[in-house]
Amino acid sequence: MKRFIFLMMALCLITPTITATGKPEVPIEKPEKLVVWCNTVHESVTNGTSRGGANLTAEFEKLYDVKIEWVPLAWDQMLEKIQLELTVSQGEPDVVFAVVDWATPAFLESFIDLSPYLKKNPIENMEDFSLGGINAFTLQGGLRFVPYRSNVQLMHYNKDLFDMYGLKEPKTMEELGEAAKKMTHTRADGAKVYGLAFIGSQTPLEIIRAFGGDVVDSDGKYVLNSSETRKAIAFMKDLYVAGAIPPNFESLTSANSRQLYVNGLIGMMFQGDNYYYQLNDSTKSGVAGKSWFASIPPSQDKSQQPGNVKLALWGAGIPKNAKKNTNDMAYEFIKFFTSRTNQLEMALNGNSPSRSIVYENEEYIKLAPYAEASLSSSPYAYPLIPAVNGIAEVMDAALEEISRAITGSKTIENALSDASKKILSILKREGIPQ
Amino acid sequence: MNQYVVVANNKQKKDIRLGFLLLSPALAVLTLFICIPGIMAAGLSFFNYRLGQTPQFAGFMNYVYLFQNPDFIISIIRNLIFVCIVVLLQLILGLAVSLLLAKNFKFQKFWVACLLTPMAISPAVASVIWRYLLNYNIGPINYLLGLIGLPRAQWLSHPILAFASICFVYIWQSTPHIIIALYPARLTIPETLYEAAYIDGANSFQSFRHITLPLLKPVIIIMTIFRIMISFRNFGLVWTLTRGGPNNATELASIFLYNEGFRYWRFGSASAVAMVLVLITVFISIKYIKSMQQSTFGA
């Protein structure tokens, strides 16, 4: 009995002590920090370092009493690192940024379905996000990533070169080809200037799209073997023969082509809209103040204006193997940074907003003169490659054969026939019905 | 007598135990980082495994897929050609330079240091430097060619030139490995042997053939085995320079493996590639080791 009384007294003493420390009645696990795996730009546009705007990282940390640990990954190693991290039983990141091109079913499967969170604690005005992007990030009806940053591809061009050759902004792909040929020349210092930058792993697909073709459609159906593709390849071959594209295009990367462009060695190139800043930055670019932009034009056979373009869309998601006590906070992170207000703030910090409404904001338009061109291209913008299993291999096979056709080491027909054989066997192995 | 035998046996056992005890850290590291991953990779090669999916037993299907895939067969053939070219040229160059360095001349140590420099540079850094030097548009080599009126060459984007370029850079970087082994070995050959041969009327080539080469043979064979094994799994340099392109012209088996594993995420077939590479390397090495034993100890 004495023991029981002692125990009760002890309990009476302990209970108020616990309550007095301010612990919540319903315990909520609040992590000390949130680890976010991202690309450098995802961080810089939130913390005001880009253009001296709002520091949203600090705001979030203050609001939720949690530390955000941004872990920027190098672009060329990002997918590999993320994929490997997803294989371990408990991964380090609580939030992961992914580009829509990676969003194959197998990849999306490794991320939490955000639908229950969205139901319980909705993200405002989801209709602002591009439907194509939302669909690409959805698996079996469940959204896995919320769009965070969106890049529409535009044609950037050197105004000086256009003026020098009396050229106007091309309205069709054929006009673009003619302009590229005209402005190709050798400078007085012996340097060769090419009309069009041509990135082997990207531009052929963009041109094929502008002609209305594609490699596989969004369901994974093989569509490369079309008259549009033939025209597009013939067009590219013509540019190659005329010397209007760098002959080493197969090894030319996006960064290489920008480097050539800022040195005045390229007349036109297809890049994300917000590269406008970098290309006109006098500390980094030799063509600063001379670089302008336009929508990527379609082929003359297509009535649609502008042409189909590449959409680079980044989303934020929560890996299934993230620490369980961080999931709620990770969702709050995603909700916070993708809200209308913060998308605008980040856009003013240099982000390409994922919400279409930001493109209509006057303050943003003042800062980003390309906003209108981006907005007009966005209905025709979709990821460069559809997110189906085996797509990386399919694209490698397609690009290999296309570049053989462009350089003339195979005829267009033979290249397309070989591409068909390879790609159809890959799609068959992946179980994608044709 | 029996007592002595028991004592001797006990001492032997103790020595064996001590031997194993001293070896145990190395064995533990080998088991942890070589044996277990090796066994796991061998096991994985019999499964279809993609990230986020449950592995499915596939029997020999990954091996069947590989040997029916012309890209894999070509990458193996390309790899063998690469190994033959680079190992042969490394040996010839390494031997020539080692013999040259063994002669007395001015600033000898300086030249030895210079020749060994490529090996001191990290392969990743060396590849990045060479990628810049060989760049078609802005590379200094093409610029120099332009100055002497020659057209620019697509060092890394023409199929044949790209293959030649990766061979060249690899030879540049790894020949010092041969020099570092052959140069001291050549210095250990007594000069009296050459003097005797000279008195007997042997010329330089005969001295080289009948004195230098036989005495350097064990080292040459060991270096050949090393270089074959290392060259066969060369990855970083080629990946940085060309990523296997253009149009797979420089896709060696290791690049094929990387693509299977880390671009297409087919870990099963990537493991099967790794197993095939291990078998080829082991087969070649055994052949060489046998020939080394025969040449050193007789048949």
Describe, in short, the structure shown.
The complex is a heterodimer of chains A (434) and B (299). Chain A is built from 19 helices and twelve strands. By secondary structure, chain A is α/β, with parallel strands linked by helices.
In words, what does this structure look like?
The complex is a heterodimer of chains A (434) and B (299). Chain A has 434 residues and is an alpha/beta fold. Chain A has two domains: 33-151 and 311-382, Periplasmic binding protein-like II (D-Maltodextrin-Binding Protein, domain 2), CATH 3.40.190; 154-309 and 388-429, 3-Layer(aba) Sandwich (D-Maltodextrin-Binding Protein, domain 2). Helix content of chain A is 42%, strand content 15%. In chain A, the strands form two sheets. In chain A, strands 1, 2, 3, 6, 7, 8, 9, 10, 11 and 12 form a ten-stranded mixed beta sheet that branches. A two-stranded antiparallel sheet of chain A has the order 4-5. In chain A, strand 4 and strand 5 (142-143) form a beta hairpin. Chain A starts with a helix and ends in a 5-residue tail after the last helix. With 299 residues, chain B is mainly α. In chain B, 77% of the residues lie in helices and 1% in strands. Chain B has twelve helices and two strands. Chain B has a two-stranded antiparallel ribbon with strand order 1-2. In chain B, helix 11 (253-263) runs antiparallel to helix 12. The mean pLDDT of chain B is 90. Chain A binds chain B through residues 80, 83, 86-87, 106-107, 109-110, 190, 192, 200, 246-251, 256, 259-260, 263, 265, 389-390, 392-393, 396, 400, 403-404, 409, and chain B through 50-53, 136-138, 146, 154, 156-157, 242-243, 245-248, 259, 262-265.
Q: What distinguishing features does this structure have?
A:
heterodimer; A: 434 residues; alpha/beta; D-Maltodextrin-Binding Protein, domain 2; 2 domains; ten-stranded mixed sheet; two-stranded antiparallel sheet; 15% strand; B: 299 residues; mainly alpha; MetI-like fold; 77% helix; 1% strand
